[in-house]
From TrEMBL:
SMART domains: PKS_ER
PANTHER family linked: DEHYDROGENASE, ZINC-CONTAINING, PUTATIVE (AFU_ORTHOLOGUE AFUA_2G02810)-RELATED, ZINC-TYPE ALCOHOL DEHYDROGENASE-LIKE
Coiled coil region boundaries: none
Cofactor: Zn(2+)
Family the UniProt entry places it in: Belongs to the zinc-containing alcohol dehydrogenase family.
Keyword field: Metal-binding, Oxidoreductase, Zinc
Name of the protein in its database record: Zinc-dependent alcohol dehydrogenase family protein
Family annotation (Pfam families): ADH_N, ADH_zinc_N
InterPro entries xref list: ADH-like_C (IPR013149), ADH-like_N (IPR013154), ADH_Zn_CS (IPR002328), ER (IPR020843), GroES-like_sf (IPR011032), NAD(P)-bd_dom_sf (IPR036291)
Tagged with keyword Cell cycle: no
Recorded superkingdom: Bacteria
Domain Enoyl reductase (ER) span(s) in chain numbering: 7-336
């Protein structure tokens, strides 16, 4: 089969790779319906994370069950399934507590920009839809599996409640999906921090009530102006840089919360500053599996359309161009179809 392999920063190739096959009795193999390029794939692409050996890429997928291992009883070939970038048995203590992305048997998916994908712990990881959804829903379901699930977790971790004010730091696909999440969870005001007009438009379409284009301390000052001088109830940090985290912590009111879901790079939090801020802080890899049934339902009933974050669709064999377009910010997020 063929799939995307990174050889060095900037060097993504679509080439022959090892066939996806059942290795454990708890595995399944799926045929990819659609996959995509993630903002976090740009860290190794840009050389911000080292690539010591060439390796496959991709952790987002929806697809059709092709084959299941002997211990998988809840899935059968032909079903359409949605999963997550983190696998989970969905039975251990952490899974039962709703933190499936800390499953004691967790594996991180890393081979999904390919024609077929092996899914470990398939029974706990995958959720099958009722029948095969219409193709127009596939981008939305793919968003559910990663960027929307992560934006949802940002809103959960930042404790967005009905009637509250939420600030979203970051206008990538996760940030835009975090706008959807804050609105769906009942925030009355959703302030999106974005400097890019096309992304501002999508944020407004997704339910943002205000846009703040300023960054850093200027951005914080604007948030304070908009919130009676004290800051927001909830701040959803969807970038992972030191500047974004600082901006998030300073934008929350005393007693407010920050949910941080961007993979941190060079972020350090000052203990004394956090102590005196009275701000709650929670983050980590999103427990997407917990949210899957609810989010799949919201997409298939048409109440949300997170698939709009995909503004470029390419055949899978043009995956290298998909990376380039995102790296050069010509695309928010690239959808890839085998
Ligand atoms: Zn588990």
């Amino acid at each position: 089969m063929r799939g995307a392999v990174i050889h060095a920063p900037g060097d993504i190739r679509y080439e022959t790779v090892d066939d996806a096959r059942i290795q454990q009795p708890t595995d399944a193999v799926i045929r990819t319906a659609v996959t995509c390029v993630c903002g976090s794939d740009l860290w190794p692409y840009r050389g911000a994370e080292p690539t010591e050996h060439s390796h496959p890429m991709g952790h987002e997928y929806v697809g059709f069950v092709e084959e299941v291992g002997s211990e998988v009883t809840g899935l059968r070939p032909g079903q359409f399934v949605v999963g997550s970038f983190a696998t989970s048995d969905n039975t251990c203590a952490n899974c039962r507590n709703g933190f499936q992305s800390s499953c004691l048997n967790r594996e991180f998916m890393s081979t999904c920009q390919a024609e077929y994908v092996r899914i470990p712990h398939a029974q706990g990881t995958l959720v099958a839809t009722d029948g095969v959804p219409d193709e127009r829903f596939w981008p939305g379901l793919l968003a559910v599996s990663d960027v929307l699930g992560t934006g949802w977790w940002a809103a959960d971790a930042a404790e967005v409640t009905p009637g509250s004010t939420a600030v979203v730091v970051g206008d990538g696909a996760v940030g835009l999906c975090a706008v959807i999440a804050a609105k769906e969870r009942g925030a009355e005001r959703v302030i999106a921090m974005s400097r890019h007009e096309s992304r501002q438009q999508l944020a407004l379409e997704f339910g943002a009530t205000d846009i703040v284009a300023e960054r850093g301390e200027e951005g914080v000052a604007r948030i304070k102006e908009l919130t009676g001088g004290i800051g927001a109830d909830s701040v959803l940090e969807c970038v992972g840089t030191a500047q974004a985290m600082r901006q998030a912590l300073h934008s929350a009111r005393p007693g407010g919360s920050v949910g941080f879901v961007g993979m941190p790079h060079g972020v350090a939090v000052d203990g004394q500053e956090l102590f005196f801020s009275h701000v709650g802080l929670r983050g980590g890899p999103a427990p997407v599996r917990r949210y899957l049934p609810d989010l799949i339902d919201r997409v298939l009933t048409g109440s949300i359309d997170p698939g709009k974050v995909f503004d470029l669709t390419l055949p899978l064999d043009q995956v290298a161009e998909g990376y380039r377009a995102m790296d050069e910010r010509r695309a928010i997020k690239t959808l890839l179809a085998p």
